[in-house]
Amino acid sequence: MSNQDYNKMGTKKFLLQEKDIPMAWYNIAAEMKNKPLPMLNPATKKPIKEEDLYPIFAKALAHQELNQTDTWIEIPEEVRDLYKVWRPTPLVRAFGLEKALDTPAHIYFKNESVSPLGSHKLNSALAQAYYCKKEGITNITTETGAGQWGAALSYAAKTFGLELAVYMVKVSYHQKPYRRSIMQTFGAQVIASPSMSTKAGRKILTDHPTYQGSLGTAISEAVELALSTPNCRYTLGSVLNHVALHQTVIGLEAEKQMEMAGEYPDVLIACFGGGSNFSGLCFPFIRHKISGEHNLRVVAAEPASCPKLTRGEFQYDYGDEAGLTPMIPMFTLGHSFEPAHIHAGGLRYHGAGSIVSQLRKDGLMDAVDIPQLESFGAATLFAQTEGIIPAPESAHAIAAAIREAKQAKEEGRSRVILFNLSGHGLIDMTAYEQYLAGDLSNYNLSDAELKKNLDELEQII
Amino acid sequence: MSNQDYNKMGTKKFLLQEKDIPMAWYNIAAEMKNKPLPMLNPATKKPIKEEDLYPIFAKALAHQELNQTDTWIEIPEEVRDLYKVWRPTPLVRAFGLEKALDTPAHIYFKNESVSPLGSHKLNSALAQAYYCKKEGITNITTETGAGQWGAALSYAAKTFGLELAVYMVKVSYHQKPYRRSIMQTFGAQVIASPSMSTKAGRKILTDHPTYQGSLGTAISEAVELALSTPNCRYTLGSVLNHVALHQTVIGLEAEKQMEMAGEYPDVLIACFGGGSNFSGLCFPFIRHKISGEHNLRVVAAEPASCPKLTRGEFQYDYGDEAGLTPMIPMFTLGHSFEPAHIHAGGLRYHGAGSIVSQLRKDGLMDAVDIPQLESFGAATLFAQTEGIIPAPESAHAIAAAIREAKQAKEEGRSRVILFNLSGHGLIDMTAYEQYLAGDLSNYNLSDAELKKNLDELEQII
Fold first, then answer.
1. How buried is residue B157: exposed, middle or buried, by Cβ count under 10 Å (0-12/13-18/19+)?
2. Residue B11: which pLDDT band, with cuts at 50, 70 and 90?
């Protein structure tokens, strides 16, 4: 079906009704032929048991984390009701972008930016807050990079009456004051990380007084606070299996919407930080690859400054900087890797989760790395043609989609591209201002820096 | 139908499909028994003719401005196609807010904040840019207060390939740098007003070097630039009849959605600056009042610092500070009124449009004025219960809705309230930060200041 046919149909958005919000999350671990390697207890180096996770996570979430048997996990009614605040989200045919690229490709995006908090993060925030509340937990902690996760969790915590402390990566705390204020408007306590409020923070500040923080460090602080506070648990916005699980509502909706559009994607693209929006869009489609029903290409778009999937090593590594978390089998740049201060704060993370890492090993997905300037060029073109200013993170997916669309043009044949617009960038305008003024750099990771980090990593494990 | 029934139905949002986007705008002027008084040519003091407006506006818009005969005006296909970027917008039952207020009232809001530019302004921006393009105009100018209109028009101008210059009220230019960057991302030129680029701006800067600007001044500058630039026209985001006309898609959609909800509003509420979102939601419902079909109450919520409808006088006055526009029959505080620097920049305007002013005179609508602190208290409660951080402008409508809901509780009987959420406040977080820190004031207009302004007004006319 050509562009013109679509225009005649007058359809741009493919919209579902509230009743179409999925009833269950999709647990890809249950269907993977090669299961991900187990996480290891950092003390014993033995595989983690569910009970090992109880001090850190709500029990239900610990159970979901290790569940490799149930393919479908029912979404609690309370969570599904709250999804109705903004879900289902639209699937959009990007006619404007296609026209600007003069490409035969059909470009679709799943628009998760319509969440009132501006990103996909609410899908898991509401679920995690719900299970904590249900188990009588009163306080939760978390970390946030760009602030998308922290903003979402702040609303979720308020909704379920939980007290929340957020460690926000220091560079973002200053770069993105609006997101900090959003969290505070929802009643959360926000602390710039590294901070003096934890041992992990104090150690880093002593060793590196000017350190501007990383997700790894903020996780260390949040975990430490959770372990040392009564009736408190830690929550995480990415990387872990249960977070990926909650995000699968994205792909499950998109699957139905591509059916409405009468097409099936040849290429699926999502930006990649810890993997939450990527897993959310892609796992339900990779299921068709596992079953042999479809053979689409699945592409993670990561920043060239933090390229764990394209250039990292598959290793057991810690999820945080201080080594407080279980050891995770992951493609990693090393847990002490200090990512450059790119504006896509949500992509500044050293490793990929265990499921994604296994899928990558098994050739079920690809990855590309995108320089910062290319991402903002793509973001600006997208804004001008589709009207939505994308989050700097999502801009990486757009850049990868544009590469695909250009290639389709060169080859002179169509292809169906679906990417995830994980969030909008209305609170990241400082980044756009700097881009328009020519003040941004790429910060691509050099070979020397990469080698240094990987050498250190091998010494650790 | 009780709350509980709705919860059982599991419906929170009432969603339309793209095919339900209205085919025509509703022109209330054609159905008003008492027509609004004519606008006057400032030179001749005679009623404005359509041709008098051609140097300022596109001809089609000038025609719409004075059209008092056609009740329905067809929406051009190109505009309707672009409405599909985000329309239809949801109608939402605010269960969370109802619960927090423990009120028997049913509270609904029309969620115009889902526009990618964050407000209802795009409804008219796309229409105005379309007509300008169609008539071969290459350059357009405008003013913007908080930046919502400027942001919307920047995207619209880019979409239709028009060059755009925006005069942004100086206080907002500095308070809201993100909105400035949004306009620049879409390729618009943004100038802080008052500026040295126009006679009107230079005069004000000479007389009041520290003046922080107002919508009235910015309009003077934008009109002057349009009149002195070849193939250029001025566009306006509010006040005028053709802007109100384009915004009626809001109320026309809401009408269908209230039918889906099985209720009819007892009270309709929208915040009021120049009248664009108010007219958009309310005119299609006032039509039921004019026809005698329904007897709902219609309430404009204006800031207590700029209360033209509650405390202003009905007079002929200029739309701008320098007196370049036609003279409009309006409830006004005087075109040289300097509104306090409240954060609801979009409500800092001295007058109401001619249709709204006539409706007010005829008792077809009411108005209330809301102090700034009450508006932010209401906004914070709304955010915490509904997940959406509202624009400071929209917060005035929320505050008025909360007053109604509390009154319903006192009286112990239900009432159906519908308000317009004209935009989100994600780019206004500085205001929330100051509110949370206790740094905001009310700036209610004093009787003495009001009298001074109205006395000056009577000398002018």
1. buried
2. low
- Choose among B420, B423, B310: nearest CA to B365: B310
pTM beyond cutoff 0.90: yes
- Residue A270 pairs with which residues in a beta bridge? A300
Q: How many CA atoms lie within 13 A of A404 on its CB side?
A: 31
**Could you tell me whether strands A313-318 and A327-332 are parallel, antiparallel, or unpaired per DSSP bridges?**
antiparallel
What is the mean pLDDT of the segment spanning B2-24? 72
What is the β-pairing status of strands B189-193 and B297-303?
Answer: unpaired
Query: What residues of chain A lie within 8 A of the CB of B155, using their CB?
Result: 383-384, 387
pLDDT at B443 over 60: yes
The arithmetic mean of pLDDT across residues B342-356, rounded, is: 92
How far apart are the CA of A461 and the nearest CA of chain B, in angstroms?
44
- Residue of A8, A77, A178 to mutate for B, most B C-beta atoms under 10 A: A178
pLDDT given for residue B215 in this prediction: 83
pLDDT above 90 (res A149): yes
Contacts of A365 (CB under 8 A, 6+ apart): A282, A286, A298, A299, A300, A356, A359
Q: What does the alpha-carbon distance between residue A138 and residue B257 come to, in Å, rounded to a whole number?
A: 39
The CA R_g of chain A, rounded to the nearest whole Å, is: 21
The whole-number pLDDT of residue A460 equals: 62
Give chain A positions within 8 Å (CB) of B178.
178, 426-427, 429-430
What's the rounded Cα separation, in Å, for the pair B252 and B250?
Answer: 6
Distance CA B418, CA B164 (A): 35
- At which residue do the structure tokens 């309009």 appear? B219
Q: Please name the helix (run of DSSP H) or strand (run of DSSP E) that holds residue B267, with its range, or none.
A: strand B267-271
Say what percent of chain A tops pLDDT 70. 97
Greater model confidence, B99 or A459: B99
User: Which residues are registered as beta bridge partners of A367?
Assistant: A300
How many CB pairs below 8 A link A and B? 133
Mean pLDDT over B396-418 rounds to 97
What residues of A are in contact with residue B100 (Cβ under 8 Å)? none
Kindly state the average pLDDT of the residues A251-272. Answer: 97
pLDDT, tens digit, 9 for 90 and up, residues B304-313: 999 999 999 9
Distance of CA A117 to the CA centre of its chain: 15
Q: Which of B7, B18, B116 sits opposite A12 (nearest CB)?
A: B18
Q: Which residue of A has its CA nearest to B90?
A: A86
- Give how far B13 is from chain A: nearest CA, Å: 7
pLDDT in tens, B102-137: 999 999 999 999 999 999 999 999 999 999 999 999
pLDDT at position B5 over 50? no
Average pLDDT, integer, range B432-438:
95
pLDDT band at B322 (very low <50, low <70, confident <90, very high): confident
Tell which residue, A85, A390, A178, A423, has the closest CA to residue B426.
A178
ipTM (interface pTM): 0.93
Distance from C-alpha of A287 to C-alpha of A267, rounded to nearest angstrom: 14
Spell out the domains of chain A, with CATH numbers in brackets: 3-23+75-118+242-454 (3.40.50.1100)
Closest residue by Cα to residue A162 from A182, A189, A122: A189
Cβ-Cβ contacts under 8 Å, B19 against chain A: 10
On the CB side of B322, CA atoms within 13 Å amount to: 20
